[in-house]
Amino acid sequence: MIRNGIRTLMAYLHLPPIVHTVRELDETRQEIEFHLSASAQDNLDSGMDSQKSEQAALQRFGDVNTVVEECCNVSFSKHIFWHRIHQTLTLILICVVGSLWFYTRNKPAEKTDLSAMAASGYSLAETSGDLRGTVVNSQGKPVNAAHVLAVVKTWPNHGFRQNSYTATTRADGTFLIEDVYPPEQDYEVQIATLADNHLLQSEYISMRKGILEPFRFQLSETSPFVLRFETSDGKPIAGVSAFPFERVEHDGHEHCVYFSSAQPVVRQSSATGKISMPHFRPGEQITVYVRFPESDWQTRRLTVPDRAQEFVLTPISNDYLDGG
After folding, report:
1. Which domain of life, per UniProt (predicted)?
2. Residue 114 located in a structural domain
3. For the chain, what is the domain count?
4. Which residue, of 1, 30, 44, 78, is most buried by count of CB atoms within 10 Å of its CB?
5. Coil, helix or strand at residue 253
6. HSE (side-chain half, CA atoms, 13 Å) at 199
7. Following DSSP, what letter does each residue of 20-88 receive, concatenated?
8. What kind and span of H or E run contains 95?
9. Other CB atoms within 10 A of residue 264 CB
């Protein structure tokens, strides 16, 4: 079918020029006949008889065949050049379309391997940046089994990704979270660490590129601090979930845990309604996330008491201190 179409097109392009003027010859003759008829009618209206009217019109107009030939020659000379260009461009267009069709039919289908994409939205090869570091206490000794909670933000293809990662420190206080950010692209990192009887500490890395230096967290020891959950009539509430969200130092510096990375540090109240949360200094402004049974998560802003070791929270707003 394609071969027949090409042969037909080539035959058309090679036709003698006179073939393309047949239609113009016919149209020119029709116009001349109309003109002669109108001229003869004018003569007839002026008083001539029918035969003399036609003869007078022919004499005034001249030889019809000569006029037709001259008209066609003028038309042909004006249009043949552009007509040939049109034919050539049509042939080129057909060749281009045919080539594209042939290319698309024979091009192997590209397969998108989703498994080759990292959570960052970039390829696994691009997402080669590691989060590594060390957690030590105030004396510089390693803190074992400290929770490391990280959130990495990226912007692939003008979009946005936020992914959470967790780890715990080894016996030497080190941690490693591999292949989580793309060093050659823009990214941000929020990382926090919590250890029993030590302050919550975090760090935020604003938008940047390149390889991160290892983190070093030096955590100060803390005093015991307990949240106790009770009903309005003083009965303990078991099964309340809570985790430390934020603490604000006296100089205004903030440390926080992102909600999306907090699962490893969520604790539930015991039968006595208590959750130990020794991650703050006395007098600090803190925020904790709390979820009572059959309720949604909510935040509670507190001030850590200077002396009291427990803070009572109820499902309503009348929270109070207990120095016991």
Report:
1. Bacteria
2. no
3. 3
4. 44
5. coil
6. 21
7. GGHHHHHHHHHHHHHHHHHHHHHHHHTT--HHHHHHHHHHHH--HHHHHHHHHHHHHHHHHHHHHHHHH
8. helix 64-106
9. 14
